[in-house]
């Protein structure tokens, strides 16, 4: 990247927020309907019910949060043991679980988000989860289930290939993919949304790390990936919804 482009990117957000945003003209201020809190899922898509994630977390956690923070690390080597559905439910709830719905445009979740807008959807590349066929799933937190998008015995290898051949992704029990739907955040914050979406991604992934540690599992966040390949893998358009972050998870 040239120095000119670097400087332009470095100051883009600061300049945008300072000079261009009129919060009296956001979609919310103009009375427009907020985007749905959860991306709609066609009724014909098969669902897999999940155990109560909050209860699963309380039952399965093996250490207090302070110890989990002290021991937190990135782990890229996993055993061949599968996760079970209760463990997966605990991880999903910790990263994006719904605690309380306050209204049609506001819900509180297990992680903080600017204005409680929560602009992410969670997809799973499942390799070894007891009770799940290998394949691609989407978490539906308001319904307490997974939508089965595609069965694919090679989904782990496809995910690794979309991440520049990082083999530990194929070896994981499950890989979490978070997509961003900017419109959810833009409804309230206009262009300032793009800054806080990136901040929110860190909240989500850190919760996953800590709960993996507490459950005796390992986690490794991944930001090096082929954008177009990952968007294609999940079947998202790359414009209104696109991959933002991902993390591989497996048993130690």
Q: What composes the largest sheet?
A: 7 strands, antiparallel
How many extended strands?
9
Backbone CA Rg: 18 Å
What sequence of helices (H) and strands (E) makes up the elements? HHEHHHEEEEEHHEHHEHE
Q: How many structural domains in the coordinates?
A: 1
Which CATH-level-2 architecture? 3-Layer(aba) Sandwich
CATH top level is: Alpha Beta
Itemize the secondary structure elements and their pairings.
Elements: H1 3-10, H2 12-19, E1 47-49, H3 53-60, H4 65-71, H5 85-96, E2 98-103, E3 106-109, E4 120-126, E5 135-140, E6 145-151, H6 155-162, H7 167-171, E7 174-180, H8 182-189, H9 193-215, E8 217-222, H10 227-234, E9 242-251
Antiparallel strand pairs: 1-6, 2-3, 4-5, 4-7, 5-6, 7-9, 8-9
Helix pairs in contact: 3-5, 4-9, 5-9, 6-10, 8-9
What's the short version?
This protein is 38% helix and 22% strand. The protein has 10 helices and 9 strands.
What report would you give on this structure?
The protein has 252 residues and is α+β, with helices and mostly antiparallel strands. It has one domain (3-36, 46-251): 3-Layer(aba) Sandwich (NADH Oxidase). The protein is built from 10 helices and 9 strands. The chain has helices spanning 3-10, 12-19, 53-60, 65-71, 85-96, 155-162, 167-171, 182-189, 193-215, 227-234, and strands at residues 47-49, 98-103, 106-109, 120-126, 135-140, 145-151, 174-180, 217-222, 242-251. It has a 7-stranded antiparallel beta sheet with strand order 1-6-5-4-7-9-8, with helices on both faces. The protein has a two-stranded antiparallel ribbon with strand order 2-3. Helix 4 (65-71) crosses helix 9 (193-215) and helix 6 runs antiparallel to helix 10 (227-234). Mean pLDDT is 92; it is low at 1-10.
